[in-house]
Amino acid sequence: MKNFVEELRWRGMIQDIMPGTEEKLMEGPTAAYVGIDPTADSLHIGHLVSVMILKHFQKCGHKPFALVGGATGMIGDPSMKSQERNLLDEETLAHNVACIKAQLSRFLDFDSDAPNRAEMVNNYDWMKDYSFLNFVRDIGKHITVNYMMAKDSVKKRLSSESREGMSFTEFSYQLLQGYDFLYLYEHKGCTLQMGGSDQWGNITTGSELIRRMLGKEAYALTCPLITKADGGKFGKTEKGNIWLDADRTSPYQFYQFWLNVSDEDAARYIKIFTMLSKEEIESAIAEHAQAPHLRTLQKLLAKEITVMVHGQQEYEKAVEASNMLFGNATSEALKHLDEKTFLQVFDGVATFELDKTKLPLNIIDLLAVETQVFPSKGECRKMIQAGGVSINKDKVADINAEINGTHLIGGKYILAQKGKKNYFIIKIR
Is 222 considered catalytic here? Predict the structure, then answer.
């Protein structure tokens, strides 16, 4: 057995671990689970640490379970939250669960015949027919209110300035998650629950419930909540979360997020978010230190995680798109971009609109009369003659060049460039 805990330890992926957990895992294949709230139809990169833990767990020969909280998702976890979550209906939850399963399949083996193939479970399946009276009689009597009130997640909510306080619905979440652990212990042989450090209180409630009801030992392990070196919130941009769903966050934007992290963050993230070995990572960090301006560490990090989430082909497209602004991209590469990615690459670039009936047009009339790429025809003529004007990444050498419908990208755009860094979009309507 490969030492799972040791693997996480050198990667900086352990925050809290219950005594005896490492020894238990070294005894032989073990089953463990991570819970995921299906509050959206996509995971975001904030979920990735827990998902990577499951991936390492399976690689080390153990059996991972991904629990989607179809039942607990209807309530909302109060852990480290300042407000109560919106409750979701069954139809929305079912849709979210199906989408999350598809995303997890990129990380975990659900389909092989291996004894440690991953399984996905939904706590709605065992909670939907459990009556309230039976639950409080069977489960509630084993965990005291004093014990539940002592949890940091509860204390934080009760001491917050929120006028609403904490509802009984939220307060009961801890007990429901504890019951999940008990159920999976009894029915799936899960002896370990893992998750983010904000889940420590909920996880240990489960292990305590198992100890009190079954007289058995269960274990807990949490990973640190990921932060940025500058103190900013990890996984958030001005436009919100970085999602794994390509429709919410395009592969290009996803790739760019990792490409733009700081050197300090890249050295931490490459251990957490890739499956590269210790030797490969140490070598990459050393190489980066020799020439930080080349950003080799960020490029490796962005490659590994983009391929893992979106596949090799989408990674190559993202690199090609990135070269549009900063590399020697060709007009052919430009034409391969889909409209959404094209607009993302050139987000914020000055845009002019032009009626399609005006085409074909002389290049100077296009850039200095019908649009304001140049303030005058004379300036435009001089820049063309100096080799400083490109249309769709192709240099314009002739001041009498004609721009027509064959130049349209996706049937509606022309990309004009003056000098090295000044881009303009001409949208043909």
Answer: no
Q: Do residues 149 and 78 touch, judged by C-beta distance below 8 A? A: no
Chain-centroid distance of CA 323 in Å reads 23
Model pTM score: 0.86
Contact between 81 and 201 under an 8 Å Cβ cutoff? The reply is no
Q: What is the pLDDT of residue 76?
A: 57
Q: How far apart are CA 307 and CA 271, in angstroms?
A: 16
- Is 142 part of the annotated catalytic residue set? no
Q: Is 225 helix (H, G, I), strand (E, B) or coil?
A: coil
| Measured distance CA(422)–CA(407) in Å, rounded | 19
Q: Of residues 2, 141, 233, 336, which has the active-site annotation?
A: 233
Q: Please report how many Cα atoms fall inside a 13 Å half-sphere around the Cα of residue 76, on the Cβ side.
A: 16
Q: Which of 85, 117, 248, 295 is an active site residue?
A: 85
Q: How far apart are CA 299 and CA 374, in angstroms?
A: 36
Instruction: Using alpha carbons, select from 29, 71, 319, 55 the residue that is nearest to residue 191.
Output: 29
183's tokens: 């159920």
So what's the pLDDT on residue 327?
Answer: 67
The stretches in the chain having pLDDT less than 50 are 80, 82-85
